[in-house]
Design goal:
mainly alpha; Growth Hormone, Chain: A; about 0% strand; globular; MFS_trans_sf
Amino acid sequence: MTDNQSLTPLKMLLFSFHATNTIILSFLPLYLKDKGLNGTEVGWVLAVGPLAAIIAQPFWGYMSDKYKTVKRILLICIVGLLISSIVFFQMEGLIAILLAGFVFYFFTSPIGGLGDSLAQRRADELHVSFGTIRTWGSIGFATSSLIIGQILSATDIQYMIWPYLFFGTVALIVAWKLADVRVESEPVRLRDINVLIKNKPFIFFLFFMMFITISHRANDSFIGLYIAQLGGSESLVGVAWFVGVISEAAVFALAGRWFRRYHTLVFVIFAGIAYTARWFIYAAAGDPYFIIMLQFLHGITFGVFYLAALEYVTRLIPNLLQSTGHLMFYAAFFGISGIIGSLVGGALIDSLGGGALYTVLGCFAAAGTLFLAIYHVMSITKKRRAV
């Protein structure tokens, strides 16, 4: 089997999982609005996902490192995704949706992190660019956002469960054919996690990074509602995500050509500056088509930021704890940041509107960029003194 053939199931898994992910990310807020929830209540439901992720991602990452398998953990989580999604989409009322949503996110939230962790390891094994593998997730996201947006506009938002189950089933089928990771070491133990917790550069980086990722996750949750506030439809929400994620896929695909020319933190800081400018520009939007035209900035912000941050974190953590470290990164990026972004964003868009929300997001991104720039300068100074 060639290297490319061995990567095909992994690429298809990333494609199909992120196709399901875009359905939740792009259309769940609109689905919940259709169920009768207000902006604040939508924020509560969206915050349950990151809350579950904070528990689920380190747990499943630890199980993956302990038993030295990513494939088996992925299979368990995808089966859980399919079963729990059926229950979640049948719920009525805020409390029932919150409880079912927690179980649903407990299984779904680790899949992206585990898939990216496996892709990072396979890329290292085969000496290929991580971005060329990860770009298939972005292609799946973009394809799904465009097609499903058109379907839901022509039918009804309540039918979003059917394309979700279709792509989830495809993910389960291709996951059986994955090549698992090979780790030549003793199984990880609970006390080994202290190595990560005591890793000050790792912990400081996660904390400073979160000022930017809070703004990113709030946009994920509420860009659909903001476009709707500006007069856009479900199909326009789908087009907005399509434009954004196509630019993200291009960045992932080309990253191997330019990524190693500068320190990874330089790219993180550059993306932070771009995030700051993006949110302030969005705050001034008066038309949904203006947002769509500027969605190419998603690749320059998230695409660059995520690739650079993940590579930087990979350098900071030992091989024995790669899955755990990657999912701690994921828990900070999508978990804690998602809770804060969803709760604050829901309250702001409900009370002051989308323009005020994006102004606050611009301030968050600016603060995070400043902190990371100071962190980078201090890291360089410390290394020079050590020499």
